[in-house]
Amino acid sequence: MAARDRAHRDAQARLADLVETRLGAILDALEAPMEQSGFDAYSRAATLTVAGGQRQAAQLAIAYVARGAPLVRPPSAVRAIEPVRVTAESPVTRSPMLRLWGQVAEGVAFADALASSRGFAAELASRDMLVAQRAGLDEGASASGRQIVGWRKELSGSACDWCQMVAEGSYGSADAVPFHEHDLCSVSPIYEGE
Questions:
Q1: What is the pTM of this model?
Q2: In angstroms, what is the C-alpha Rg of the chain?
Q3: Half-sphere exposure of 26 (CA within 13 A, CB side)
Q4: DSSP-H helix ranges across 30-109
Q5: Is residue 122 within 8 Å of 23, Cβ to Cβ?
Q6: H or E segment at 154?
Q7: Which distant-in-sequence residues (6+ apart) come within 8 Å of 89 by Cβ?
Q8: For 18-66, how does the pLDDT look when each residue is reduced to its tens digit (9 = 90+)?
């Protein structure tokens, strides 16, 4: 079980890193970053990138649950993420550009403002990916017919003391599991009878 949990966490972390890297590359490649056309180009590309990553995060989570319990109905990653799917109005598709524009307007050097925007995009995408992973875990559990009775924090290899303390508890929902900024831990369900 521990090896399966670790493999799942590692796959989710690699996917989140890939999405964050792609968002940074999108920002770096904008032809007119200080114009509306640059804003629109970033928004379109970020929407596709993060929403696609969310679908993959949900699929990974569904597969993780399916390895532990046979499925009694077909799961759907698309259905799982529908309530949380990133759209053109989501913060990750707009706020990094607004931050870039705002910092440049305040006199911050363009390169520094761009670096700040890349970091902000990565932070926002990380949250969106984690929410999609949780939705996939819920969908997988529902498709398996298993009852989730709680959630626990799954520690990353670099978990801090606070995370280790928080991981000792169980939580009523995946969203209730506490996380801090730049947290690399994840969540996993606790099934009835465990």
A1: 0.82
A2: 18
A3: 29
A4: 36-68, 77-81, 95-105
A5: yes
A6: strand 148-154
A7: none
A8: 999 999 999 999 999 999 999 999 999 999 999 999 999 999 999 888 8
